[in-house]
TrEMBL record:
Pfam family, any one: TMP-TENI
This protein's pathway: Cofactor biosynthesis; thiamine diphosphate biosynthesis; thiamine phosphate from 4-amino-2-methyl-5-diphosphomethylpyrimidine and 4-methyl-5-(2-phosphoethyl)-thiazole: step 1/1
Residue positions binding Mg(2+): D68, D87
Residues that bind 4-amino-2-methyl-5-(diphosphooxymethyl)pyrimidine: Q35, L36, R37, M38, K39, N67, S106, K135
Cross-referenced Gene3D superfamilies: Aldolase class I
The protein, known as: Thiamine-phosphate synthase
Cellular component GO terms, alphabetical: cytoplasm
Sequence ranges assigned to domain Thiamine phosphate synthase/TenI in this UniProt record: 9-185
First-tier enzyme category under EC: transferase
Gene, per the UniProt record: thiE
Organism: Shimazuella alba
Cofactors: Mg(2+)
């Protein structure tokens, strides 16, 4: 089961050098879940990496979420799966993943958010909120759209895309249930300290978040 509290400081991986050690540092700093996202590698490389990350996340007692790859999520018994709008339909993914695996869905519009909730999504990833080097072709989502999604859905909402020390304050008034961060933590000279900074900020700025 994927508990809402585990989504609060949501680390999404990139494919940089020393990913394992940098993720481990971020976990020491307090990230509450890890989404393993590997778009440019072979299935076997993804699988072997996922097995290592599963053990790492188990060590820190945080969920491991697999991006896109349903088969890998099943093989390693991941805690959840995350899919986007260009992947398989939710119904197809649910049939393949089985009835119990939580599935998160990336959404960019109110309509997509409502449909994902209706389909049975465990949570939503809303973004990209700001321009981000991690996904240069991402369509930006307005704060007004975020506000409307938050007001209409009952499942947890995680904001993603360009979240860093400068932009965090812009999304916090909308009280997201989680904040997903990539480069601001993993590209930092000190991922552990950077994760600790965000953990502290979330603790003080969001009522009932921690």
């Amino acid at each position: 089961m994927l508990l809402p509290d585990s989504l609060r400081l949501y680390l999404v991986t990139d494919e940089q050098v020393n990913l394992f050690s940098r993720t481990e540092a971020a976990l020491r700093g307090g990230v509450t879940c890890v989404q393993l996202r590997m778009k440019q590698v072979s299935f076997e490389t993804f699988l072997q990496t996922a097995k290592r990350f599963k053990q790492l996340c188990k060590q820190f007692q945080v969920p491991l979420i697999i991006n896109d790859q349903v088969e890998i999520a099943k093989i390693i018994q991941a805690d959840a799966l995350h899919i986007g709008q260009t992947d398989l339909s939710f119904a197809a993914v649910r049939q393949w993943a089985g009835p119990t695996m939580p599935i998160g869905v990336s959404v960019h519009t109110v309509e997509q958010a409502l449909q994902a909730e209706k389909d049975g999504a465990a949570y939503l990833g809303v973004g990209a909120m700001f321009s981000t080097p991690s996904k240069v072709d991402a369509n930006l989502v307005s704060l007004k759209t975020l506000e409307k999604i938050k007001s209409l859905v009952r499942i947890p909402v995680v904001v993603i895309g360009g979240i860093n020390q400068k932009t965090l304050s812009k999304v916090m008034p909308y009280q997201p249930d989680g904040v997903a961060i990539i480069s601001a933590i993993l590209s930092s000279p000190d991922p552990e300290q950077e994760a600790r900074y965000f953990r502290t900020q979330l603790h003080f700025q969001v009522t009932g978040f921690m």
